[in-house]
Design a protein that fits this description.
By secondary structure, this protein is of the alpha/beta class. The protein contains 12 helices and 12 strands. The strands form 3 sheets. It has an 8-stranded parallel barrel with strand order 3-4-5-8-9-10-11-12, surrounded by 6 helices. Strands 1-2 form a two-stranded antiparallel sheet. A two-stranded parallel ribbon has the order 6-7. It is globular, with a radius of gyration of 20 Å.
Length: 375
C-alpha cells in the first residue's frame, strides 16, 4: 500500500514533494536579527533531509518584535543579506521549498534565552519596551507592555509587508504569518489578552481585525505563484480563551483573503495554561479546522513516529504534518520514515551509499525498519 505521507501536495503555486515539514524552531543564535554560522549548519543539515518543506524560525518584522536578542529578523538590509547567504547555501544542497515564519512577539518579547530560564530580561540585560493590544503582562515578573495605538498598528502592518518583500527578494517560496504561541497576532485574537474598547477589541470580529489587516497586507505583498500560510491557535487551554470555533472563524477569513494553508497549534498565551501534552495532542484542533474550512491544514504537536504521521494524513485529519524536536533528535527522520512506510525518497548523492538498499548496516542501525521492509 502506498504512503499518503509521501505524496506531493500543491500549496498555491508551490508543489511540496511530500507532506512532511520542518516546523519553525527558534535557535536564539542570531546577531541583531542576522543569521549566523549556526543557522547555516542547522538549516543546511535539514535541507538535506528529504523534507517536503523547510521552515525558517519565527522571524521578527521589527527589532522590538523579536523574542530575544538572539532571534532572527527581517527588518534590515543586514538581516536580509544574512538570511540570503543561508538560504542560498541550502539551495545548493537540496531542492525542497523553503519558507519563513514572519512574527512579532508582542508582550512576550524582550526575553532571555530558554537555557538561561527564558524569563523577561532584567535591567542589566538590555531589555526593551514591549507592545501588545492591552497593557497586560504575560505573567508574573514580565514587563507590562505598551498598549498599541491605532497609528502604531498601521506601522506594524507596513512592517509585516516590508519583511515579506525582503523574503520575496531572498527567493523563499513560502511565507507564514505567526498567529499562535501567545505572540502578537494571538494576543489580539484572544479575549484573555485583548481588553481593548475600540474597534480592535471586544467581539470576535473586532479581535480578528488587526491580524486580518496584516494578512491582507501579506497577501498583497506576497506573489500568488508562491505559497502563503499562517500558524493559528486552536485553543488557549484556559477557560474564556480561544476555542476551536475561533480557530475555524479565523481560518475561514484567511481562506477568503487568499491564504493557501493554516498550521494549527495551541497554547502559549499564558503561563496559567494547563496543557495535556501527549502524542498528537494538537491534532484534534487541526482536524476540526480541516472539516470546517476548505483550506489545506497542517498538524503539529508531538508527532514523532512515522506510522503516527502517516495515520494523521491518510485518515484526512490533516493534509500535512510538521515536526520539530523529532528533527533535532534525528535530522534523517524522513529517510527512516520512508524505510518504515515503503516509500522512495531521494538521497543526496554524497550520502547515497547509506541507503538501506546499499548499506547492510541499516539493519543493525534500525532493526525496526528492517522488520518493516521484510513484512
Amino acid at each position: 500500500m502506498s504512503s499518503k505521507l509521501f505524496t506531493p501536495i500543491q500549496l498555491g503555486g508551490v508543489t511540496l514533494p511530500n507532506r512532511i515539514a520542518v516546523s519553525p524552531m527558534c535557535q536564539y543564535s542570531a546577531d541583531d536579527g542576522c543569521m549566523s554560522d549556526w543557522h547555516l549548519m542547522h538549516l543546511g543539515s535539514l535541507a538535506a533531509s528529504g523534507v517536503g518543506l523547510l521552515m525558517i524560525e519565527a522571524t521578527g518584522v521589527t527589532r522590538e518584535g523579536r523574542i530575544s536578542h538572539g532571534c532572527t529578523g527581517l527588518y534590515s538590509e543586514h538581516n536580509e543579506a544574512a538570511m540570503k547567504r543561508v538560504v542560498d547555501a541550502c539551495r545548493r544542497i537540496a531542492r525542497s521549498p523553503i519558507g519563513v515564519q514572519l512574527a512579532h512577539a508582542g508582550r512576550k518579547a524582550s526575553a532571555g534565552f530558554p537555557w538561561h530560564g527564558g524569563k523577561a530580561l532584567g535591567p542589566g540585560e538590555s531589555p526593551w519596551v514591549t507592545v501588545a493590544p492591552s497593557a497586560l503582562a504575560f505573567g508574573e515578573g514580565w514587563h507590562v507592555p505598551h498598549e498599541l495605538a491605532e497609528a502604531e498598528l498601521r506601522g506594524l502592518v507596513d512592517a509585516f509587508a516590508a519583511a515579506a518583500e525582503r523574503a520575496r527578494r531572498i527567493g523563499l517560496e513560502v511565507a507564514e504569518l505567526h498567529s499562535a504561541h501567545g505572540y502578537l497576532m494571538h494576543q489580539f485574537l484572544s479575549p484573555l489578552s485583548n481588553r481593548r474598547a475600540d474597534r480592535y477589541g471586544g467581539s470576535r470580529e473586532n479581535r480578528m481585525r488587526f491580524p486580518l489587516e496584516v494578512a491582507r497586507a501579506l497577501r498583497e505583498a506576497w506573489p500568488r505563484e508562491r505559497a502563503l500560510g499562517a500558524r493559528i491557535t486552536g485553543a488557549d487551554w484556559i477557560e474564556g480563551g480561544v476555542t476551536p470555533e475561533d480557530a475555524i472563524a479565523y481560518a475561514r477569513e484567511l481562506k477568503a483573503i487568499g491564504f493557501d494553508y493554516v498550521c494549527v497549534s495551541s497554547g502559549g498565551l499564558s503561563p496559567a495554561a494547563r496543557i495535556k501534552v501527549e502524542p498528537g495532542y494538537q491534532v484534534p484542533f487541526a482536524e476540526k479546522v480541516k472539516k470546517a474550512v476548505p483550506i489545506a491544514v497542517r498538524a503539529v504537536g508531538m508527532i514523532a513516529d512515522p506510522e503516527q504521521a502517516e495515520a494523521i494524513v491518510a485518515s484526512g485529519k490533516a493534509d500535512m504534518v510538521a515536526l520539530a524536536r523529532a528533527f533535532l533528535d534525528d535530522p534523517r527522520w524522513v529517510w527512516h520514515a520512508a524505510e518504515r512506510l515503503g516509500a522512495k525518497v531521494e538521497y543526496p548523492p554524497q550520502y547515497a551509499r547509506s541507503h538501506p538498499e546499499l548499506w547492510p548496516g541499516a539493519k543493525l542501525a534500525r532493526p525496526e525498519g528492517a522488520a518493516a521492509r521484510a513484512a
